Amino acid sequence: MLIEGDYGRRGIYTIVMTVSIRSIDHTHTLTLVPANPSTCTQPGHTAYYVCDDCGKWFEDEAGTVEITDHSSVVVPAGHTPSDWQYDTDQHWKVCTVADCGVVIAESVAAHSYGDDDVCDICGYIAPTPTYKFLEGANGQWTQSSGGPLTFRVSGNFARFTGVKIDGVLIDASNYTARAGSTIVSLGAGYLQTLAVGSHTLTVVYTNGECSTRFVVSPVSVAPVQSPQTGENAAVPVFWIALFLVSMAGFAGTLVYSQKKKDSAK
Fold this sequence. Notes:
Blueprint: E1 2-7, E2 13-18, E3 30-33, E4 44-45, E5 48-51, E6 57-58, E7 66-67, E8 74-75, E9 85-86, E10 90-92, E11 109-110, E12 133-135, E13 139-142, E14 149-153, E15 160-165, E16 168-169, E17 175-179, E18 182-186, H1 188-191, E19 197-205, E20 208-217, H2 231-264
Parallel strand pairs: 13-20
Antiparallel strand pairs: 1-2, 3-5, 4-8, 5-6, 6-7, 9-10, 10-11, 12-14, 14-18, 15-16, 15-19, 17-18, 19-20
């Protein structure tokens, strides 16, 4: 220790003391704090060591790695989630801890489908929907018609991919298609190329299809009227007979008149 003193300008004696302190090595006496697993509702912690003298925390028994952030050993409370479970509308996980089994709220959500109708999150495969014709089923088109043949199907137009006739996918130039739900109109030009008779139309979607029959009829011809029979036919026959009788009488009168003239001569 070194002490020095001096008078200042105002006669005040100032003492300056210099003290040299020799560091004293501390040997930690560490006690293990065993790990305490968390539960579904209570937090736990990992194992660590505490010095009985200075209270410092360490990761290792030798006391070489100090834990300055005591919150780092805390293991939060929480459920142990299962694999995905699902129904037709949504998916979720449940806690696998014995005597818990609660549905984990943050896992509950509606399915999120890709183009393949498989949920991107849980892998659930959507069932194939049942499509049906709302208008135009079992329709008929006549070759003399200049208009299209139209059908309306219950499917979502966003999933519409094409049209088959008699099992063969036809070119999109042969029909028009629009939403509401799905409205398909076969063009008259294309219908003219089909043979007279029954055909099958199939509306195709990414996740199913729907079919119906339709008929192409030949150009209609006005029917020839059959001769009348029965009572209705009797009327014209009567008048014809009467006409013939009249003509015969007229002819007889002419012959008689001619003979009378000849006799007079």
